[in-house]
Design brief:
The complex is a heterodimer of chains A (198) and B (251). Chain A contains 5 helices and 14 strands. Chain A is an alpha/beta fold. With 251 residues, chain B is of the alpha/beta class. Chain B has one domain: TIM Barrel, CATH 3.20.20.70. Chain B is 35% helix and 27% strand. Chain B contains 10 helices and 12 strands. In chain B, helix 1 packs parallel to helix 2 and helix 8 packs across helix 10. The two termini of chain B are 14 Å apart. Chains A and B meet through helix 1, strand 8, strand 10 and helix 5 of A and helix 2, helix 3 and helix 5 of B.
Chain lengths: 198, 251
Amino acid sequence: MRALILNYGVGNIFSISSALKRKNLEVDVSSVPRPEYDLIVFPGVGAFSSVSNFLRSYGETLNRLRKEGSSFLGICLGMQVMFQSGSEGGGGEGLGWFQGKIEKLQGAPKLPHIGWDRVQLTNSSLLTENIDGRYFYFVHSYVAQNYDPSDVDLVANYGSIFPVLVEGPGIAGTQFHPEKSGESGSLFLDNLIRWLRR
Amino acid sequence: MTTKRIIPCLDAKNGKVVKGINFLGLKDKGNPAELAQRYEEEGADEIVFLDVTATMEDRGALLDSVRSTASTISIPLTVGGGIRSVKDASTLFSAGADKISVNTAAVRNPSLVTAIAREFGSQAVVVAIDARREYDRWKVYVRSGTEATQLDPVKWAKQVEEAGAGEILLTSIDRDGTKNGYDMDLTKAVSFNVGVPVIASGGAGSAQHFLEVLTEGGADAALAAGVFHDRLLTIMEVKKLLISKGVEVRP
């Protein structure tokens, strides 16, 4: 299977690339979305407005690729831009693939939220097999709010409860970093590959 | 709630992991990628990689070490040493660093913290603060502990938080390598006065030291080097004690 990691030009995409290669995916990196990939990854680096502007400039292409059968994984910020809007750094529109907006995490003792947290199952799916109760690595200050609970498979609690795995037809987003989450992350990526083959 | 993190630190010089006492007398402790992998297997929550003698000339060796470490491990990697510009930071992110740590350059030019945070996000910027006790107060030191500044670590920590730092790596030079325990007063003073996570560093010698600094000391993470390199203590032994005392850690 082939994966394309979209490079918005900032940050570490080396780790997600290494993690997917360890799962025997053929990995390419490009700054332009391209057809004929099983998986297109929005990596978790950068700031909301610049990344959402970048992706929205390819809005039609991305929607066409979805129709043609490519699946999408958004990680952290890459998941957040799949929602309708964000308030970080002056705010901006997202892709609107999931209902909800991205707001600062409420009630958190310290921000950014950096570290390992236990995830809790809310909806079972191929993506959540053997995942409930495991610890994943988080590094973020913003979370999805006003979301549709039926999109949410997993939540975590840091000051307040927030979605950490959202799923729709051919699209998935994680607030955690599977590529940084050791054995738990590896299990999640195994599930992701089964989900791609479904 | 977020777990407390245990972070082994690889201090590297010319591609080898080294460790000294009070920042001096560095001894060879092995290959960074191999050590990092061993620590991941033993339960490390994150790895910090500091090139203690980094200059622009030996940046190549640092980048090779970062790449090989980042491709081996699947936990977060922070890299520090000799970062003086957004471009330096960018090069390290491209090589596989999840966060970069700045120390001397932040003191010389605090706007560097803001510039890196704006481009890569606060979560990717760690400011390392090395402090030494002087009578009843502390002073911030730069250049691997060789040069004193007039900065107070608590005020400096608040200032870098304001500037966009996402985390503070706080090292007691007095305790570094002594295995006598973390500087609890210093850690408390900083961690209860800033809103970003604090990583305590310097002096870990027993599991009890980790427990103290992560509870009473208010630290969010505890970093250690020598005690793990020399196998005086394993990460699992530390976590076992923490769990038995009701401190949540990733098992």
